[in-house]
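Researcher: Quick test of sequence recovery. Tokens follow.
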């Protein structure tokens, strides 16, 4: 193991990690918004929109992110739509993540007892107030495990961003291996970088899940 090589090129991994994390944060935020909207449409069974949302979810969940990025980066220019690499990466992550977040939110809303919403309406709350003060907080708490798993899944999916010419972690690792044939060192730094990003996020979601579970049980 060449530790001098690792020290020399660790800066490249640091820059790539920040790029990966920035794109992941934007994509995850967008997927949460899209997922919440789609989850509401599916939960309330909005005519026409519910069917369209169902088609989107099936299409998104059953096609790899790599194929989606190929379409955005190489396919859209054929019809005159040219997107920058980062824009393609964020859009692909939102498209993929939105479907998974939608199912997490929908299952969370369906897990809330309908008696609670009916009670809120009988107390004089509007449908909007019932959704905002009763349904959404409980649904979000129930959906936390699914949301956490989706967040980690989406961050790991950033490993394919190199195909749209982004200097992400995987791109840096492949370049160093190709130039210097330092496979062990490059992969060690790659694994370490992903652990540094993912491990704290996993711990945070585990803590949130535990706290919400204890709060729900009254302990």
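Model:
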């Amino acid at each position: 193991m060449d530790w001098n090589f690792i020290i020399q090129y660790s800066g490249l991994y640091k820059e790539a990690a920040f790029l990966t994390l920035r794109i992941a944060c934007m994509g995850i935020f967008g997927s949460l918004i899209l997922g919440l909207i789609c989850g509401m449409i599916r939960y309330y069974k909005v005519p026409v929109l519910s069917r369209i949302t169902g088609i989107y979810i099936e299409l998104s969940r059953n096609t790899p992110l790599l194929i989606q990025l190929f379409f955005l980066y190489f396919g859209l220019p054929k019809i005159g739509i040219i997107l920058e690499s980062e824009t393609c990466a964020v859009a692909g992550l939102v498209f993929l993540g939105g479907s998974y977040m939608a199912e997490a939110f929908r299952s969370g809303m369906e897990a809330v007892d309908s008696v609670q919403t009916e009670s809120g309406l009988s107390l004089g709350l509007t449908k909007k107030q019932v959704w905002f003060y009763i349904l959404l907080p409980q649904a979000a708490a129930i959906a936390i495990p699914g949301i956490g798993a989706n967040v980690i899944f989406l961050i790991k999916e950033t490993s394919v961003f190199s195909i749209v010419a982004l200097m992400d972690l995987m791109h840096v690792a492949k370049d160093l291996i190709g130039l210097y044939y330092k496979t062990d060192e490059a992969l060690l730094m790659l694994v370490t970088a992903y652990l540094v990003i993912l491990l704290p996020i996993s711990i945070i979601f585990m803590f949130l899940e535990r706290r919400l579970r204890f709060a729900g049980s009254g302990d």
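The chain is about 80% helix and 0% strand.
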